[in-house]
Amino acid sequence: MKQPSFFAKILLFGEYGIIENAKGLTIPYNFYKGTLKFVDAEEHSDSNEKLMEFAAYLSSEMPDSFDIERLEKDLAAGMYFDSDIPQGYGVGSSGALVAAIYDQYAHNPIATNGLSKGKISELKTILGKMESYFHGKSSGIDPLICYMNIPLLINSKDDIDTVGLPEEKAGKGAIFLINSGVPGKTEPMVQAFFEKMKNEGFRKTMHKEFTKYNDACIDAFVKGKTEPLFKNLKNLSTWAFANFKPMIPTRLLNAWENGIQSNDYYLKLCGSGGGGFVLGFTKDFEKAQQSLPDFELEPFYRF
């Protein structure tokens, strides 16, 4: 059978902030994708076994929402998730898997076309409960973007809407990914964040400063306003360097600080951090490449 593909995602803005009701902006990243497939081969037994464990979770926690019998039958026939989305890199590997299972095995899956805010919120809740199996707790945002495959503006936990983005231009500017070289683990990073939130000083700066810079970046990016975008990106990158240092991959600490000092580029977390990809923004991609000779930069949006 021919199965649909589900693409990776990038959370441009809102990492950790969306947990505290700040805004977020997430976009599909079609460079990576995953598809449910059938094959009689030992090389995919690991994926098949992990899907069986996920199916057992769905059978226990959400039995009325899925055709568990058909899912288990297909897994017994060797179904696996064929994915090139790197795991632990902040681009939605578990989100794409959750989206694929929901699409094929949910009873009456919600269609993606013309969804109201209420339906988007309902879908996010279902997908979040599914993805909680992988991360302990999930907002549902990652599988939602992987399932809908269109940019989403997160105004708050219960207010999510589709959004149009400025068209790409063949300019000098770029948003890019840097590979830290090591995968990150979402659950311990999120737990560390909640520990930090117990500190009143951190909580105050998170709600006042992070939210201010983060939301201003989103507003400027959506409206295509480069100058206010980069002004607030510098503030956001500086704030993260001071307050999110445990989440910044060690290999990128010097590069992160260099970007703030040189203004050649600014770095920010891509997802929960600790490893995986880091996001970069620059007005001059060639200059950023020259300033980061030890890293391979993967541009995905030009302006």
Shape: globular
Tell me the fraction of residues in β-strands, as a range: 15-25%
CATH-defined architecture of the largest domain: 2-Layer Sandwich
Number of strands: 9
Q: Count up the helices.
A: 10
One letter per element, helices H and strands E, the order comes to EEHHEHHHEEEHHHHEEHE
Number of domains: 2
Q: Main β-sheet, in a few words?
A: 5 strands, antiparallel
The CA-CA distance between the termini, in Å, is 40 Å
Structure explained in plain terms:
Strand 7 (266-269) and strand 8 form a beta hairpin. With 303 residues, this protein is an alpha+beta fold. The protein has helices at 45-61, 68-76, 93-105, 117-135, 141-148, 186-197, 200-223, 226-243, 253-262, 285-291; strands spanning 6-13, 24-38, 79-83, 152-156, 159-162, 174-179, 266-269, 277-282, 297-302. Helix 7 (200-223) runs antiparallel to helix 8. It is built from ten helices and nine strands. It folds into two domains: 6-162, 2-Layer Sandwich (Ribosomal Protein S5, domain 2); 174-302, Alpha-Beta Plaits (2-Layer Sandwich), CATH 3.30.70.890.
Summary, kept brief:
This protein is an alpha+beta fold and 303 residues long. It folds into two domains: 6-162, 2-Layer Sandwich (Ribosomal Protein S5, domain 2); 174-302, Alpha-Beta Plaits (2-Layer Sandwich). It contains ten helices and nine strands.
